Amino acid sequence: MKILLLNLGLMLLLLPAFSQRNTRVVFTINLHDSVQKIRNIGASACWFGEEIGKKWPADAKQRMADVLFSRAFENNGQPKGIGLSAFRFNIGAGTAEQGDSSGIKNPAHRVECFLSPQGKYDWSKQQGYIWLLKQAKKQGVKDLIAFVNSPPVQFTKNGLGYKLRKDEKSNLQENKYADYAGFLSTVVRHFDKINCHFNYISPVNEPQWDWSGTFGEAKQEGSPWTNEEIYKTVKALNKGLQRQKATTKILITEAGMLNHLYDSNVKASRQIARFWDPGSDLYIGNLSHATPFVEGHGYFTDNGDDNLISVRNKLKDTLKKYDAGLEYWQSEYCMLGDGFKENVKDIKRSAMDCALFLAKVIHQDFTAGNATAWHFWNAFEPGAADSNTQYYLVALNALANKDSAKLYTITKNLWALGHYSLFVRPGMYRLQTSRSDGLSETAAARQVMVSAFKDDKTLVVNVINYTIENTIAGFVPEGLPNAKKMKLVKRYVTTAAEGEDMMPYPVENTQEQKPGEPYDVIFPARSVTTLLFSF
Question: Structure pTM?
Fold first, then answer.
C-alpha cells in the first residue's frame, strides 16, 4: 500500500479544527473508458475589463491578466494564474457612446461599438477589453470567443441596447439582419488582421430572457430572440463569414438556462430539436460555419443536488437522442440564484463555501452533463472577497484608487476554477470512474467527488472533499499495461486557510505499493485537490 501523507506537524498546524474519517472510499479509474474530449475552460471579463485594461496601473492590470491566463509557477511552487484555455470577448452595441441617453443605469455596463451610426468603423473603441484579449493571445489561450448581447443600437427597433417592452421578440429591425451579419463579419476580419483570431462567435445571448427595462434603470445590453430569428441571424452570419473567407465558427444557442435546450415553453425553447433535428425547418447542421456545440448557461439549475444533476443528465440524454456528435458547452455560470446557499438562510457563505459549491457545479457539468467546455461569468466584479463571492473570481475594491494593492482581492473561486483550467487541458479526455461505497450521484455530492482526465502522459484527478472531516480516499488505475506503473508526482490543494490556494503539498511515499492496491491520499476537510499522476 502507498500512503501519501503530510508531515504530522504540518497536518496539525493546517487542519486543527477537523477530525479524520478513517473509513476510506476507493475510486477506480478506467484508463480505457474515455467519455468526452475537453475543448476548453474559460471565463469572461465583461464590463469591468474595460476599466482595468484601459486605466489601471501597468502592474495591477498585468497581474489581472496573469491570474487568468498564466501557466507559470511561483518559486514556492504555487501557480501564478489559472491558465484559462478560452476567453470570451464582448462586442459592444454602442450604449457607452449614448451615455445617460442609453437608459442603462450603471456606466460600467455600457459598451462601445466599433461601428458608428454614420457607418464608420473605429477600431480605437473597447481598448481596455482589447488589451485583455491581446494578453490572452500572448499567454497562449487556445480559444478566443466573441459574443454579443445586443446588435448595434443603430440596428435596433428602439435605438437602444435593450427592450422597453416584453414580447420575446428580437430588438433587431426586420431589414437589418444582413447589416448585423456584415458588422459581425467585419469585426471578425479586423481581429484576424491584428492577430487576435476569434475561433468562435456567438451572435445571440440568452435569447429566452425579455431583456426589457425601464429607461434609466436598465441593467445592461441585451435582446430576446425567437428560434426563427436565431435561425435567420445564423444563416445571415454564415453568409457574411463566407464572404470574408473567415474560418471563425458560429456558436448558435447560448441559452439562458439549460432546460431551454431540451424543453420549456418560451419562444426560444427545445433548441436542440429545433436546430439539430434534420427534419426541422430550422436545421442548421448543414451550414458551413455552424458548430455541433450546444451552448447553455448553468444559471438557476443549481438549487439542490437533485436538480443540479438531473438537469444535466436530461441535457446529456437529449443530445444523444438527436446526434451523437453534439457536445454540451456550459458557456456562462456564476452563483446567480440562491442555490449556493444550500438552504443555509440569513448567514453569509464563506469564500471557501462558495469555492466548493463552484467546484461541485463544474464537477457535475463534466461528469453528469458530459460538458466539453466550461466558462465562468464574470472574472471581475466589485464586491467582498471573504463571503458571498458568488459572482466573480476577483473582487474589485475601488476602481478610483490608484494604489495597486487595494484595487482588487483574489477570491477562492479563482483557485477552485484553476484546479480544472490549469491542469485539464484542451485535448484531454475525461475518464469513467467508479466508487467502492456505491453512492448515487446525488448522495456523493455532499461527500467526496472525483473526476479524472488524461492525455498520453498525464492523469489528472480532481478531488472535492465536501465534508467537514479529513478524508482518506484510494485510487486504483484500471487498464494500465503490466509493464507500466502509475506514479503520483504532484499534489495541489486549496482550503479555507489564507494562502492555501492551489498550494503544492508534499508527496511522501511511506510504503511500497503492491499490485492492485490503491494509492491512499488524505484530503483536508472542505478542500479541492488536484493529483497529477505520470504513467
Answer: 0.95
